[in-house]
Amino acid sequence: MSHSLTLRVYYEDTDLAGIVYYANYLRFIERARTEWLRDLGIDQSTLKTESGHVFAVRRIEADYLRPARFDDLLQIDSHLHAMTAARVIMDQTVRRGDQTLFTARVTIVCLDAAGRPARLPAAFSQAIGTV
User: Fold this and answer.
1) How does pLDDT run across 58-77, given as a tens digit for each residue?
2) Which are the contacts of 2, defined by CB distance < 8 A and separation ≥ 6?
3) The 3-state secondary structure of 73-129, one letter per residue
4) pLDDT at position 131, please?
5) Could you tell me what percentage of the chain is helix, strand and coil, using 3-state DSSP and rounding each to the nearest 5?
6) Does residue 37 contact residue 112 with C-beta atoms inside 8 Å?
7) DSSP assigned state of 72
8) Active site residue 15
9) What pLDDT shows up at residue 130?
C-alpha cells in the first residue's frame, strides 16, 4: 500500500538561507499521511466525532540527506511497512526529482477519546485491505 503527494516549498517553509527548516519535513510527511487516509476514504474528522478515535505519532526515525530549497517541487512517497491491530508503521521519502532528500520511518498509533491506546478502527483496517 503506497501513496504519493506532490508539494511545492514556499518561502514560509524556509530559513533565511532559503533552505527548508528541518522540522518542516515532519509537516510535509504528516500532510502526505493525511492525504493517504483521505484517498482511502477515511475522514479523520468524522472518525473523531463518531468514535473519538484519533491517530498519533508514537515514534519517528528520520534521516536528513540533502536540503530542499525555496520553490522546489517535492514528491512525498508513503509506503505501508507493517501493521498490527494497534499500530501502523510507514516508510516515507521526500524527493526532488531523482534525489532523495529525507527519509523517515513513522510509527502511528490510535488513541480513544480519553487519550488511551486503542485498536485501529475496523474502517481503517478494511480500507487497507486487511481485517
Assistant:
1) 999 999 999 999 999 999 99
2) 77, 78, 79, 80
3) EEEEEEEEEEECCCEEEEEEEEEECCEEEEEEEEEEEEECCCCCEECCCHHHHHHHC
4) 39
5) 25, 45, 30
6) no
7) -
8) yes
9) 53
In the three-class reduction of DSSP (H, G, I as helix; E, B as strand; rest coil), residue 7 is classed as strand
Residues in the chain: 131
Among residues 13, 15, 72, 112, which one is catalytic? Answer: 15
Joined together, the cell numbers standing for residue 67 give 536540503
**CB-CB neighbours of 92 under 10 Å:** 26
Q: What is the pLDDT of residue 114?
A: 93
Rounded Cα gap, residues 89 and 119, in angstroms: 14
- C-alpha 60/C-alpha 70 separation (Å) is 25
Inform me whether the pLDDT recorded for 52 exceeds 70. yes
**Percent of residues, the chain, with pLDDT higher than 90:** 80
